[in-house]
Batch of 2 targets.
Target 1
Amino acid sequence: MKYRRLGKTQMRVSVIGIGTWQLGGEWGKTFEQTEVDAMLAKATELGVNLIDTAECYGDHLSERLIGQAVKGRRDKWIIATKFGHGFKPGFDREMLFEPAQVRRQLEDSLKALQTDYVDLYQFHSGTDKFFDTPGLWEMLQEQVKAGKVRHLGISISSKFSTSYQVDKASAVEAQAIQVVYNRIERKPEQQLFDSCMRQDLGVLARVPLAGGFLSGKYSKDAVFADSDVRSV
């Protein structure tokens, strides 16, 4: 396994991480704890040390499965999670970016993950207006000082204009960016990466296999169940 410095965080992360949206039950499968335990054990064996999750992957379900799987081995993992979305069935979300709402989400994430701290806490797919919510980043910086969050990040949605948030990353003390980037979606190369390099921001590739379509498993005629996010 190869490892790289994640920007100004100075954390050494494996170049391959584990994305865990699937664990929330929106990809046509419900995961048992034993399956998650086995996946993370194998990942450790292969040198993977980065897990990416979110509070809205099944209303903290993904986080709970991860928390139980890494129990007793927390120091072996770099855990990134996110804030800003309240889970609602049917691939729907409630936007929750007020400081008090995010503080509650953080406490719930820490409980689900069975940990005292999150390594990377990311603003999740919000508009520029939500990004500028009064008091949000000040509250988050207080959590960093309290030791509940090691580093702040921004996970950007391709639905919104993204350059504004990246350009303001250093101003809000965010140290890493997560962005949709794969062999199909390459706009960040022209729109974002120069700013990331100037600010020494870590970059995490979001949906690097385009939801599985770049894995070679599916043809253009593939059909997914109604309960699978890829069906919409």
Target 2
Amino acid sequence: MNRLLVATAGLSGLAAITFFSGIANAEHAVAIPAPAQDVPAASGHKAVAVLAGGCFWGMEAVFEHVKGVRSVTAGYDGGNAADANYAAVSSERTKHAESIRIVYDPQQVSYGTLLRVFFSIAHDPTELNRQGPDSGTSYRSAIFPQNAAQRAVANAYIAQLQRAHAFKAPIVTRIENGTFYAAEPYHQHFYDRHPDHPYIVQWDKPKVAAFKAAFPQLTA
């Protein structure tokens, strides 16, 4: 699915630019509390988190700027290996969600902190099966815990945010099981390799800027 065609469907020229700019300028971090429950820091220096929240270009870009994150891979989770490719997933006939696999140092950043960034600025957890101009189940908000501790923390944090009425609408983020499959090479580090791409400029650069402004202590 062409992201730009989706975003500007029915619009042209100045109207499309105005549409893009209005949404991009609205990017901001939602002030939410830190999780009351977190995964204890492991003795090693490597842990994995898998999150889905709309277009993986922007999700990847935000988490690549988080201190303690070692690498971020764009990909697909929630479906089968046979159709874990962009053409199939974009058809919205698979069960995949565009996702990112985060390898991080738990001595520097906790799983709960990653979830705080996820909910606050990486995406809008109140949008059901869509994010910005992109719609469909592949753009759903989902967390794929890698172990029981992560699952417990994710469930507890969603409940905590719901009780606090942290958002104006209910959180629709799903806790799911799945296997992560890396996306095609041309999707990897798209933000860094194509900084002038219209989608990146209008949707993802404001998000990264908002992250840096809201979480300077977490910015790498």
